[in-house]
Write a structure and sequence with these properties.
Elements (H helix, E strand, L loop, with lengths): L2 H21 L5 H5 L2 E4 L4 E4 L4 E7 L5 E8 L5 E3 L8 E9 L6 E10 L2 E12 L2 E7 L5 E7 L11 E10 L2 E5 L1
Antiparallel strand pairs: 1-2, 3-4, 4-6, 5-6, 6-7, 7-8, 9-10, 10-11, 11-12
Bound molecules: calcium ion.
Calcium ion binds next to strand 7.
Organism: Candidatus Chryseopegocella kryptomonas
Protein name: VCBS repeat-containing protein
Keywords: Signal
């Protein structure tokens, strides 16, 4: 086989692989459910396992370390938030340190060649309700929620709130 032929075959293989990578480049729910993420509310980096993380240990001094983080599976939104053409994911995480607080936060997971890479997140509030998350055509992230009004007890938020973020310089920036 001539050298040119070999190069042609190599190039063909290269482009075929490239095409597959493109085609297969979407993030899968399964990958997100097992991604390494940062829990902003407790400032801890954790690895989700099937959408959950649980730390429950007692130190020698008798101090209990407890952290439970859950991916809110039905609130995952897909879309290109950084404008590189690949579909990223925006997730909602719920976390508690064992007390009455139950924190919701939004997290951005970039699509790096088909692999999930956590970028940044922002806490939405304690015991708020997230209705839905949407990625708009201008790449902004819209979160429709119910938060606490002045007279709302912690259990029962009743004030609708829409918040919008844009990914800028690796952070979530709140926009109007
Ligand atoms: Ca992207």
């Amino acid at each position: 086989m001539g050298g040119i032929m070999k190069i042609a075959i190599l190039m063909l293989a290269f482009f075929t692989l490239g095409a597959f990578a493109q085609k297969d480049g979407k993030l899968k729910i399964q990958q997100i459910k097992n991604a390494t993420v940062h829990c902003v509310a407790y400032d801890t980096t954790i690895k989700l396992k099937n959408g959950k993380f649980l730390l429950d240990e007692t130190t020698e001094e008798g101090f209990r370390n407890y952290l439970e983080v859950s991916l809110v599976e039905d609130k995952i939104a897909f879309g290109d938030v950084d404008g590189d053409g690949d579909e990223d994911a925006v997730i909602i995480l719920a976390s508690t340190g064992g007390g009455s607080g139950y924190f919701y936060e939004v997290g951005v997971i970039l699509n790096q060649n088909g692999k999930p890479e956590y970028l940044t997140g922002e806490v939405l509030g304690d015991r708020v309700k997230v209705n839905f998350v949407k990625i708009l055509s201008d790449r902004s992230i819209l979160i429709d929620m119910v938060v606490h009004g002045e007279d709302d007890p912690m259990c029962c938020p009743s004030t609708p709130k829409i918040i919008r973020y844009k990914v800028a310089r690796g952070k979530l920036k709140e926009i109007d």
